[in-house]
Amino acid sequence: MEQLYVGIDVSSTKHAAYFMKPNGDKFSSFPMQNDLGGAKMISKKIVSALTKLGLDTVVIGMEATSVYGDNLVYALREDGSLGRFHRKIHVLNPKQVKNFKKSYPELPKNDPVDAFVIADQLRFGRIGKEVYMDDYRYKALQTLTRARFYAVQNLTREKERFANYLFLKCSGIAQSKDIPNTSATTLALMEHFETVDELANADLNELTAFVNKAGHGRFADPEATAKLVQAAARGSYRLPKTVNDSINQVMSVSIAAMRALESQIKALEKSIEQQFEIIPNTLTSIPGIGKVYSAGIIAEIGDINRFAGQASVAKYAGLVWTQHKSNEFEAEDTHLIKSGNRYLRYYLLEAANSVRRCDSEFRRYYDLKFKEVNKHQHKRALALTARKLVRLVFRLLKDNRLYKLPEG
Fold first, then answer.
1. pLDDT of 246-302, one tens digit each?
2. What is the value of pTM for the model shown?
3. CB–CB of 45/64 below 8 Å?
4. Rounded-to-integer distance, Cα 398 and Cα 400, Å
5. Contacts of 392 (CB under 8 A, 6+ apart)
6. Phi/psi class of residue 376: alpha, beta or left (left: φ > 0; alpha: ψ in -120 to 50)?
7. Which of 93, 118, 180, 213 is buried deepest, with most CB atoms within 10 A?
């Protein structure tokens, strides 16, 4: 089937467009503003080109460049003038475009050339899934689940920073396996006690009461915990006062940041659950997966019928492994591919980690894979468990049925 290929190189202020005929020849190229007027202009030019060439299908592609192309995708998707034609819209992974461009070593690096490369890549057809936009409920949910993804990543990084500050101020607590670095109790201790000496010399009864209150009564033996904290403080390094004061200041900022991020995550999760209520699904029937992880998976997959099988979903998520094979040799130590939808991969891995704690079949599978190797045990076992989860997710969504717990 003959089609018009439209490559668009996206930027924050201006786009470059390249129209390619079915045989690979140039039809036209032009710059356009990244605004509503520019979107209307390219729609008119697409209609004009299709009419002049006697075609009824256009394949549009653009490189994923932050959020700068999102509005254009919506505009092209909703434009009524393109309604009588078949439209296919693809957002390409920048790595795909870069690798494809390597086959044209003589080309310079500029916007019109990049638009040509995208159009030519569309013509060759190795471009992955079309942008799924048939139901905007998925996009609305995706906006929330991706925002949560970034908030969780930021919280993880902030916790890592705080752990470094904690080691400087109170190395004993940072080194202790019995006192979590970023627990509510540890944060409260670092806020309340200015120096390690204050903590080390605190009255045991007062410290016990403080630990019990900070831990919200969760400690079975608050006094034993207080003694553990005090012993850790006594064995810690001592900082010069000037350095200690600066560490207290940055710890205070870090604690405030962590609490703010935790509050943001809770607010996002509440919104995710509300948005998820209007999207029918069967994934929450899997023990341990929950609404938030289910929403994260559903938001990225969209309509399951656009995937040929569970292997296509796994590839889309990047849960497939590279192959190193030559003649009789095949490497045992392989890695997950670096392409794929990182949001879907994240939510599948998080869901798999939760499900394996609640479902006996997934727990057995995880344990089996964990014991097969001597290095990267958890990481490997979790990735394989997530791959197993993909098969279940595909089947439940495809058949629109609930999950049944394995007998025994």
1. 999 999 999 999 999 999 999 999 999 999 998 888 999 999 999 999 999 999 998
2. 0.81
3. no
4. 6
5. 286, 403
6. left
7. 118
